[in-house]
Design a protein that fits this description.
The complex is a heterodimer of chains A (103) and B (491). Chain A has a domain at 13-51: Histone, subunit A, CATH 1.10.20. In chain A, a hairpin with a 2-residue loop joins strand 2 (91-92) and strand 3 (95-99). In chain A, 9% of the residues are buried. Chain A has three helices and three strands; from the N terminus they run ααβαββ. With 103 residues, chain A is mainly alpha-helical. Chain B has 491 residues and is α+β, with helices and mostly antiparallel strands. Chain B folds into three domains: 7-297, no CATH class; 306-419, no CATH class; 427-484, Arc Repressor Mutant, subunit A (Orthogonal Bundle), CATH 1.10.10. Helices cover 40% and strands 19% of the residues of chain B. Chain B contains 17 helices and 16 strands. Chain B has helices at 3-6, 58-70, 170-186, 227-246, 292-300, 306-317, 321-328, 331-341, 349-363, 369-372, 378-389, 395-408, 412-419, 427-440, 442-449, 454-466, 473-484, and strands at 7-18, 56-57, 78-79, 82-85, 95-98, 105-114, 117-130, 134-137, 146-150, 157-163, 199-209, 219-224, 254-259, 264-267, 280-281, 288-289. In chain B, strand 8 and strand 9 (146-150) form a beta hairpin. The longest helix of chain B has 20 residues, at 227-246. Chain B starts with a helix and ends in a 7-residue tail after the last helix. The chains are: A mainly alpha (103), B alpha+beta (491). The interface between A and B is large, with 39 and 56 residues.
Chain lengths: 103, 491
């Protein structure tokens, strides 16, 4: 999150649009303003948290204490292809069909 | 060319290797994505259905640690997975589970040689992630209206080996990659097949003035699908960058795709926000604690690695370093060699090496043995060598027989018996052939007696022809000299 500004500098509408584009969200001008103000207040709170001294505390990798959960390499049954494709808006010959994507 | 004196190339390779587990990285779906019908090997986890949760495949973690140990990496005690965000239909979650700041391993090195000179390349890290699904574009990609998505490959365990920018030429890059591939084979990760995508390689290439210590503008090359294309693409790219700078231009940091038929790299339109991956810790996976005991357990499963095996081939079998290097750069070939030497009855190591690197590799290039197998069994090669060594057949017949053994799959011994190919060493039969040839070639016989040594070779050839190749040429030579007198000294 290093690219985001501190609340002091204020989150700009352009930055909200940038983040929205990364998340593939189409926002109206009103929404951009509304989310900008909401995000500003969230960032202000984060900034408050940032002032706490955490120099002697390791970064939290996970909120739970659980560690090293693994499974054996044993294949399990998969879903039937009909079930896999049931909710797909478009399919062809067992494939999901999507709008052509050009890199 | 200017490059040798004025510019230095700086190259780092990023290698992806699929891990040949039975089930996927985070779910129990089969990893057999090549033969299964489209989307048949998918489940709620790899389809990213709501409410599904990933569980780590222990074997994939162990394979990664094993590789990291073979590459002299440090294995930290604490490691975790992260989400790498990107939207593309080949991964339905909208992110790839990968590793960001706390990978399974780091700070390794790989040693190799270029033209007999030792080289070393640092290994930044070896980490674990998941492969993506495959997109099928109907017709030409730029005109296709739709893409078809097959998620059988989505979630297959994928290891990424990031090398330091320590390589200085296309040759060095190729040797490094060849050695790395051998280590992956030896560690049982995969067969090193680039065509099927088991093994993939991207290269970061930049150039800088000779003597400079800062890096130039880096270009990433993708889409190299063979060892040859890795070498060609890097060579092309270095030369292209030199020409841009020499003509007063500036290089841009970009991704370029290798176009193999045209032999050029082509700028790929960069996705606008492609590198804004916004990694964050994967909340669905608890971190891993890699105990030292576990690491030692994995270390014990490491096989003899290529460098050690090569040294053993030199000391145990008295092979040249050159032959030993060629034989051990593929585990399949090295195994074949040892099996032939140790086959029932055995065969001399030097002869086995010569046949593998000579006639056998002409029938099928050794790099294809990993996927297609050796052209014949090691036991049959050993048998063929013994047939020649014992004088049963001549060396030339051995070469013919090799082709037949490969084509028919029959044992060389059976082929010799079937076709009555055994070399004739009996004096009666040989003597009769020799007498006939002397009688029919009176002029050559006189020439030999009269001081033309080359006439003897002609006569031996005639006997061989008469015997359909079955006469033992040394015996024929001796018998001719007996009949015609010693003749002139050989010369």
């Amino acid at each position: 999150m290093g690219t985001l500004p501190t609340p002091d500098s204020g989150l700009s509408s352009e930055e909200v649009e940038h983040v929205a584009r990364l998340a593939r969200l189409g926002l109206t001008a009103d929404e951009v303003t509304r989310y900008r103000d909401q995000l500003r207040s969230i960032l202000a709170y984060i900034d408050q948290l940032n002032r706490a001294d955490t120099s002697k505390i390791l970064a939290t990798a996970h909120p739970l204490d659980e560690r090293t959960v693994m499974r054996d390499d044993v294949p399990q049954p998969c879903l039937p292809v009909e079930a896999v494709l049931r909710n797909a808006p478009s399919t062809e010959d067992g494939y999901f069909k999507v709008k052509a994507i050009q890199e | 060319m200017a490059i040798a004196t004025r510019y230095q190339a700086v190259i780092g390779l990023e290698v992806h290797a699929q891990i040949l587990t039975h089930s996927k990285m985070f779910c129990g779906c089969s990893t057999d994505y090549l033969t299964a019908p489209p989307n048949a090997n998918t489940c709620p986890v790899c389809l990213a259905l709501p409410g599904s949760l990933p569980v780590i495949n222990r074997k994939a973690v162990e394979a990664t640690i094993r590789t990291a140990l073979a590459l002299n990496c440090e294995i930290p005690e604490f490691t975790k997975f992260d989400r790498k965000n990107y939207f593309y239909p080949d991964l339905p979650k909208g992110y790839q589970i990968s590793q960001y700041d706390l990978p399974l391993s780091r700070n390794g090195r790989l040693e190799f040689e270029v033209n007999g000179e030792p080289r070393r390349c640092g290994i930044t890290r070896v980490h674990l992630e998941e492969d993506t699904g495959k997109l099928l574009h109907a017709g030409e990609i730029h005109r296709a209206q739709s893409s078809l998505v097959n998620l059988n490959r989505a979630g297959v365990p994928l290891m990424e080996i990031v090398g330091e920018p320590d390589l200085r030429s296309a040759d060095e890059a190729r040797e490094y990659f060849t050695r790395l591939r051998a280590i992956l084979q030896y560690a049982g990760i995969n067969n090193g097949d680039m065509e099927s995508g088991q093994l993939r390689c991207d290269a970061n290439v930049s150039i800088r003035p000779e003597g400079s210590t800062t890096y130039g503008t880096k270009v990433e090359i993708k889409n190299m699908n063979s060892f040859r294309s890795v070498h060609r693409a890097i060579e092309f790219e270095i030369e292209r960058q030199v020409q841009v700078l020499e003509s007063g231009g500036a290089l841009v940091q970009e991704t370029r795709g290798w176009n193999d038929p045209k032999g050029v790299t082509v700028s790929q339109r960069s996705k606008e926000y492609a590198h804004d991956y916004r990694y964050f810790p994967e909340p669905d996976l608890p971190p891993l604690v890699v105990t030292r005991g576990w690491v030692e357990e994995i270390r014990r499963t490491l096989p003899e690695l290529p460098a050690a095996r090569r040294a053993r081939f030199v000391s145990q079998f008295e092979l040249s370093i050159y032959d030993a290097t060629l034989l051990t750069s593929s585990k399949t070939v090295a195994d074949f060699f040892e099996q032939a030497v140790r086959a029932d009855g055995g065969a001399p190591p030097k002869a086995v090496a010569n046949w593998i690197l000579g006639d056998l590799s002409r029938i099928r290039g050794t790099e294809a043995w990993d996927t297609a197998g050796a052209p014949l069994s090691p036991a049959h090669l050993a048998q063929l060598i013994r047939l020649i060594d014992s004088g049963t057949i001549s060396g030339k017949m051995g070469k013919d027989l090799l082709g037949q053994a490969v084509a028919s799959g029959k044992a060389p011994q059976d082929l010799v018996a079937e076709q009555g190919l055994s070399q004739v060493t009996g004096e009666d039969q040989l003597g009769a052939w020799v007498d006939q040839v002397i009688a029919e070639n009176a002029k050559s016989s006189q020439d030999f007696k009269g001081g033309k040594p080359q006439a003897l070779g002609f006569l031996v050839g005639q006997v061989m022809k008469l015997s359909k190749g079955r006469a033992n040429p040394e015996r024929v030579n001796a018998l001719l000299r007996e009949r015609l007198g010693p003749g002139p000294p050989n010369g």
